[in-house]
């Protein structure tokens, strides 16, 4: 794929290397003929569009922008290409990419000649739109026919288009081609490709490119660092990400709320709440305001460690700063309280969330169901489960089923769990090894070791492989029944299948 892109650009590259001068193009097109709308309309349209341009286009609505374009093309004399380009830029910022492309085509039919900046706006829209990728590439040839030599902005837009479609090989090939043609990538070009590489988990390649850009004298900005920090954190390399934060501060590049929030969230997920809190303090000391994502990450960290009073303090601080809690905030708190067996508090937060007009999602309901199971109320949990999918409540997903199955088994309702399990299989639901392991564990705890082993053996005929937890569960079941020979045989099979015994099995 990568070489095909390079080959595709080869002919254009040759033309570039022999045609490295800018051509200025006039507006040779004769004024088009229109149906007679009336001289008075033309006079009004001319003055109206001038008023719009004078007052600024920042607050323009989409339909107003289209109306303005219509009035501009009917004005005499025609507005300058600068005015048309300003309008196209505004519509592009509205993400109406296909509309910009269409309006540009209308301008050409009317004989309105573009400038390079206009062409770059259209190139960006072609790359971001639903149009086939080949149209963006062929637009370079069209620009040359109009007398324009594409610049680094043009190619960066095309590069962004490949990245937008996750065509990483094409993006890398184009970047190499840009350098071969003698163009000097700027910080936006480098950052675009670095972001794409990080997004696709090619973090080492992104770091190499980061070092290359600095060697070539291109100074990274906060967006470059944020892309790398996010990529490293997503790959579990939070210590490298923390080093990058120190590096950017050393270079006097101010980190943003995104930088800190990404790192705080990574530390929380790694179970390093103390480090997350320290980062939060640094963030505050630098007068960088936390956002709702920052607060949500810290609330999650406190809940994961059972520090619920601190989680609620952070929740109240967040609201006092003017941030509205979202469904993630409330669900995190509900899960935290339910996990700590404080289900009544979780329910109160659930009702508070509903009063504020936020609709609970499947994860919210699953957290409550798990809470009721943990406090020995599987019947209440099942009642709540039965409400899902009706009267505006979200439907359960496979995790909801697994949580309820586990709750029923742990509370001695193995028969109910088996009935639900059979229902899931008849409905041809996506039953995973996790679901089977839950049922096998429930059977073993209920003393039905032989039935559990039959189900275990059936996994292989279904093309499903047991994992180390499944093996451990079954081995423990044999041991509790005193079936040491069977347990030993299964242990040896587990080793043969490539699983390392965990501490529980080794004992």
Automatic annotation (TrEMBL):
Pfam families: PPR, PPR_1, PPR_2, PPR_3
Recorded GO MF terms: mRNA binding
Cited InterPro entries: PPR_rpt (IPR002885), TPR-like_helical_dom_sf (IPR011990)
Signal peptide: none
Protein's UniProt keywords contain Isomerase: no
Extent of the PPR repeats: 80-114, 115-150, 151-185, 186-220, 221-255, 256-290, 291-325, 326-360, 361-395, 397-431, 432-466, 467-501
Annotated keywords: Repeat
Keyword 4Fe-4S: no
Family that this chain belongs to: Belongs to the PPR family. P subfamily.
UniProt-recorded name of the protein: Pentacotripeptide-repeat region of PRORP domain-containing protein
């Amino acid at each position: 794929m990568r070489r095909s892109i390079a080959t595709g650009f080869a002919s254009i590259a040759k033309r570039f290397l022999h045609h490295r001068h800018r051509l200025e193009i006039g507006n040779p097109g004769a004024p088009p003929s229109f149906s007679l709308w009336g001289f008075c309309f033309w006079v009004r349209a001319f003055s109206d569009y001038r008023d719009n341009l004078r007052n600024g286009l920042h607050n323009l609505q989409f339909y107003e922008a289209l109306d303005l374009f219509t009035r501009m093309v009917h004005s005499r004399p025609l507005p300058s290409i600068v005015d048309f380009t300003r309008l196209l830029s505004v519509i592009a910022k509205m993400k109406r990419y296909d509309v910009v492309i269409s309006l540009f085509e209308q301008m050409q039919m009317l004989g309105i000649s573009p400038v390079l900046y206009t062409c770059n706006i259209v190139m960006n829209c072609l790359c971001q739109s639903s149009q086939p990728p080949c149209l963006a590439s062929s637009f370079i040839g069209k620009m040359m026919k109009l007398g324009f030599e594409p610049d680094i902005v043009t190619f960066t837009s095309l590069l962004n288009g490949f990245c937008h479609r996750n065509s990483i090989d094409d993006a890398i090939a184009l970047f190499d081609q840009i350098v071969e043609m003698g163009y000097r990538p700027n910080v936006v070009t480098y950052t675009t490709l670095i972001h794409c590489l990080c997004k696709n988990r090619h973090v080492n390649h992104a770091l190499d490119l980061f070092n290359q850009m600095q060697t070539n004298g291109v100074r990274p900005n906060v967006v470059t660092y944020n892309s790398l920090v996010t990529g490293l954190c997503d790959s579990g390399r939070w210590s490298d990400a923390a080093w990058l934060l120190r590096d950017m501060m050393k270079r006097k590049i101010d980190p943003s709320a995104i930088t800190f929030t990404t790192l705080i969230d990574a530390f929380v997920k790694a179970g390093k709440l103390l480090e997350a809190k320290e980062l939060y303090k640094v963030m505050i000391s630098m007068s960088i305001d936390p956002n709702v994502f920052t607060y949500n990450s810290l609330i999650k960290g406190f809940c994961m460690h059972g520090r619920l009073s601190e989680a609620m303090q952070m929740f109240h601080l967040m609201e006092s700063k003017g941030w509205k809690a979202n469904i993630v905030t409330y669900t995190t708190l509900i899960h935290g309280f339910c996990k700590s067996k404080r289900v009544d508090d979780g329910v109160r937060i659930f009702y508070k969330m509903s009063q504020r007009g936020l609709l609970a999602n499947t994860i919210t309901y699953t957290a409550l169901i798990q809470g009721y199971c943990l406090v020995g109320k599987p019947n209440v949990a099942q009642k709540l489960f039965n409400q899902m999918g009706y009267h505006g409540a979200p439907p359960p997903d496979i995790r909801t089923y697994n949580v309820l199955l586990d709750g029923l088994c742990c509370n001695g309702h193995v028969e109910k769990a088996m009935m639900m399990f059979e229902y899931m299989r008849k409905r041809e639901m996506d039953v995973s090894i996790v679901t089977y392991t839950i049922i096998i564990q429930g059977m073993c705890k209920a003393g039905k070791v032989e039935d559990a082993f039959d189900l275990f053996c059936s996994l292989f005929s279904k093309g499903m492989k047991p994992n180390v937890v499944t093996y451990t569960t079954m081995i423990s079941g044999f041991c509790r029944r005193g079936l040491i020979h069977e347990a030993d045989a299964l242990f040896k099979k587990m080793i043969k299948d490539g699983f390392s015994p965990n501490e529980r099995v080794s004992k």
